[in-house]
Amino acid sequence: MIKKIRLELLYYVAILLVLAIVQHSDLLTAPLERFEQMQHNANYFHPFLYALLIYILIACMRVIVKFILFLKNKFKTN
């Protein structure tokens, strides 16, 4: 169970990093300036919320694909 939680947490962090780099390319060149802007605007939690939304969408798609494959294998054996 701990292994599954770690894997899902790794997925979430990967989504968070990809979204941050795609939306704010200056994180690669001047990360301190970006963090200062974030502190000045006091918007700390929006990246986590956006990443959570994308994670939930991807998780729903994973569940649907897993269910379709389950049904396909169930009817294939009969």
Describe this structure in words.
With 78 residues, the protein is mostly helical. It has one domain (2-77). It is 88% helix and 0% strand. The chain has four helices and no strands. The model has no long low-confidence stretch (mean pLDDT 90).
Write the layout of secondary structure elements.
Layout lengths: L1 H22 L2 H4 L1 H11 L4 H32 L1
Helix pairs in contact: 1-4
As a whole number of angstroms, the C-alpha radius of gyration is 18 Å
The helix tally amounts to 4
**Which stretches are poorly predicted, pLDDT < 50 over at least 5 residues?**
none
The 3D shape can be described as elongated
Average pLDDT, rounded to a whole number, is: 90
List the secondary-structure elements in sequence, H or E. Answer: HHHH
Tell me the count of domains: 1
Largest sheet: none
User: Structural class from helices and strands?
Assistant: mainly alpha
Proportion of residues in extended strands: under 5%
Q: Report the span from N to C terminus.
A: 32 Å
